[in-house]
Design brief:
Mean pLDDT: 85
Structural class: mainly alpha
Low-confidence stretches: none
Number of helices: 3
Radius of gyration: 16 Å
Distance between the termini: 52 Å
Order of helices and strands: HHH
Largest sheet: none
C-alpha cells in the first residue's frame, strides 16, 4: 500500500480519537458545574447521542460557573 492509501485511514482514526476525547472531556467538565440534576442529565444525553455537536455546544455555552 502506498502512503496515499494509508493517509485517509490515519486521518479517520485520528478524528475518531479526537471525537472520543472531546466527548469525555465535556462529560468530565459537566461534573464541575453547579446546575440542576435535570440539566446535567439533558446535557449528558445530548453529549452521548450527538457527541461532536453536543460536546462543542456544551463547551461554548458553559451553562453556569463551575464550582
Amino acid at each position: 500500500m502506498s502512503a496515499l492509501h494509508i493517509l485517509p485511514i490515519f486521518l479517520s482514526y485520528l478524528m475518531l480519537v479526537g471525537w472520543i476525547i472531546l466527548g469525555f472531556f465535556a462529560l468530565f467538565e459537566l461534573r464541575k458545574y453547579k446546575i440542576s440534576s435535570i440539566a446535567k442529565a439533558l446535557w449528558t444525553i445530548i453529549i452521548v447521542i450527538i457527541p461532536l455537536v453536543g460536546a462543542l455546544a456544551f463547551l461554548i455555552v458553559n451553562p453556569s460557573d463551575p464550582v
